[in-house]
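Incident log, structure service

09:12 report received: a user says their structure output differs between two submissions of the same chain.
09:20 pulled the input from the user's history:
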Amino acid sequence: MKLKVWLGILVSLGVMGAGGTVARADADYDQALKTAPQGIALENVFTPGTAGNNQAQVVDVTNPNVKGTQAARVNNGKKQFGALWSTNENVFDLTQDHSASMWMYFGNTGKKAADGMALVFQNDENGLAASPKFGKTISGETLGVWGVDNNRKNTDPGTIASLAIQNSWALEFDTHLNNSTSYGNSGDADSFDVSIKGPHIASNYPGAPETYEMVRTVTYIPIYGVGYYATQAHEGVISGDYTMLANGAWHHLSLNWSAKAQEMTYTFDDKDPNTGEEKTGTTQTVPLDLAKIDPKGTNKVRWGFTGATGESYENNLVLFEEVPGLVDATAKTKVTDTTTGKTVGDGESLMGTHQVQVDYQLDYLKGKQTWKDVDAQIQLPDHIDYKSAKITYSDGTTADVSLDDLSDNKVHYTLTEALSDTNKSAVISFTGKAEDVKGATPIDSSVSTFAAVNGVVTTSTPSLVLNPTLELYALSLSGSGTAVEAGKDVSMRGLVVIPEGLGLGNSDMTVKPKINGEDLPSFQIPEGEGDDSGIFTVTVPAAKLKSGRNQLTFVVGDPFGNVSNEVTYTIDVNRQLLLQTGDGTGAFADTTLTGTKQKVRRLKGWQVEVLDTREAGAKWSLQVTGTDFKRSDGAKLAGNLFYFDGGDQTPITDVATTVGTGTATDGDDLTDVAGNWDDDQGLMLELNSAAVHGDYEAKLTWTLNDVPS
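09:34 re-ran on a clean worker, output below:
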């Protein structure tokens, strides 16, 4: 009998990279490309570095839902160095403000991930060939940019810095803690993160000696003696746990460079990878010392991503949305209730059955290239029946946008015109009618993407509430109006017809009254009044009423923003002419007698006011009579009370003297007679030389006359 032996051979397929290291493909790598967000093409924008051991590549993503997107594969295997740099035509201009945005992927191995990536700005003399000086072994700790700690006897941080990419600033995304402090690990490139607690984002200057510190350590075995390890200073730290980076998800990064302030702001995780919706993210701002990254003052810097791995690895991928200088564009949305003409903002209400317009505005701000063949992937808000759409360009060109393929409120449309310096904007407008809903219905924010090979922007519609449109009818139960005496409050009863079938009651209805156009306090209809019949009472305080005709108006609103018809109620307040003298007292200043003739001034506090609420043109006059000033013992004051008017003076006696006149202007006219007198006018006391000291009193009688016109 023959024995057949089957020999199974397990073959690991891969692509042989430079230096003989295998570039591995795995399920996580495939999944990352299949779920990649929308980005741009990297041709003529970024290119793999030319260092001899560089294994980074530009690869096509495989997500069928995105268009023209390429990713920078920085690392995907053990013992790799990877670098992709901007082309000569795409260097970063330090004299201009710039924004950039990108998506980054760090694998899915969490705590086992290694080692991360770095975003690098550099003017290393090696240009595209810039790389740390690794020696025989690639060090993952360097992330492809930091200095190499490979000599346990080295005490000089400058030596570490000299092995880094020179004239550079790096923003690291470190997935693996290098925190060894033992003698046995000194000089083995595993100590940069001694002060850090977990995965982190941080920045500094790889080629600057002050970025590193040499720490002395010893062993108990005398023959080994003293060793040193390098730690790294971390600036602008954003830290987290092991789900922060290598969690199998794409992470969004936004960069903003301020040329004037010479500051870089970076915001991490500011978009949802599944929906593209903007989030708050985590932000840090750090100053950049341009002398360290641009010592020759060229105002230009090459930029890109680097990475390095050791015995462990992760799949490191980057794809770009916005690249500085290439195309700078924005997108924004606006929702308009065209029935009311109101723009509906985030968290606000849209009314059911109303006509609606949703606008997507694209603006080209600047760039080296035109923004053309823009692929619009629009997710329209729900609960709107869309009837038509068109696009309008700033150069006046318009075109209809077909809704024939509208499905699940998704529209796919390619702009036929390029946006550029001469045709800077386009607005895609969708018109339709909101659904007739029976209760408050949320309309979630929806994200739309506008992508071309050289630029991607996204925008979100506001989150809205679609409310039912209800007809509320209100009326007065107190007739059309009333007449009252001045100084009295007025109450009227009203009614609103509450729609049935929606569970609405009195407390859901808000009465909004006004008197003569001025808002009175709004209030909810009390539960107990009318047993949810919609009956209510509006009270107008007397102080809010003017003489003559007053107009009370009110509307009633429901919780959904519906408002009833306006009801008008007339209040006629009788007209009058009144004298107001307060407590009826007045006084003159205490005076030191001089034995000569002298005047005594009035004290403040005299209240002599005329209120005239009659029709315009009515006239009045105010007269006064007075008695002699006497002491309590009956002695008369040697002096007289006079009314001074300019150069004239009239003694106040039992004969009436006119001290004020006025004319009504068909309003609540209040004339402060005494308050209008100057210090040398009005009633003044004049003493003779024979006056003696004492307290004197007199009685004044005021007479207000209605003078015929």
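09:41 both user submissions now match this output. Likely a transient worker issue. Closing.
09:42 reviewer note: The chain is about 5% helix and 40% strand. Residues 377 and 412 are 5 Å apart (CA to CA).
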